[in-house]
Amino acid sequence: QVQLVESGGGLVQAGGSLRLSCAASGLTLDYYAINWFRQAPGKEREGVSCISRGDGITYYADSVKDRFTISRDNAKNTVYLQMNSLKPEDTAVYYCAADSQGLCVAYEYDYWGQGTQVTVSS
């Protein structure tokens, strides 16, 4: 059974940091592009970051560039999203999704996690 499980969310003050994890079972993350999305109440889902299959090219939304870092640990079959200098507008449920095309250009995703809540207080 394939599962993506996010963890690491929580409540943090503005300016603080969190590290989200997306741990996989039943699939090898290095064979997929792994995307991080977020969705705040009343807002559309937003793509935050992506790491491509294999060579690990990374992409970031302008809103998080220079603050967030995506990385992959193949030994742990886990992708991380290090979030620094957090702002109240980063508050959302964060999801990871795996895309078998592998190039961070997909519009459809093979697997999704259940999400983890990030709340940034001002």
Structure, described:
The structure is a single chain. The protein has 122 residues and is mostly beta strands. The radius of gyration is 13 Å and the shape is globular. The model has no long low-confidence stretch (mean pLDDT 96). The strands form two sheets. Strands 2, 4, 5, 6, 9, 10 and 11 form a seven-stranded mixed beta sheet that branches. It has a four-stranded antiparallel beta sheet with strand order 1-3-8-7, with no helix packed on it. The chain contains no helices and eleven strands.
Task: Describe the structure concisely for a colleague.
The strands form 2 sheets. Strands 2, 4, 5, 6, 9, 10 and 11 form a 7-stranded mixed beta sheet that branches. This protein is mainly beta. It is 0% helix and 50% strand.
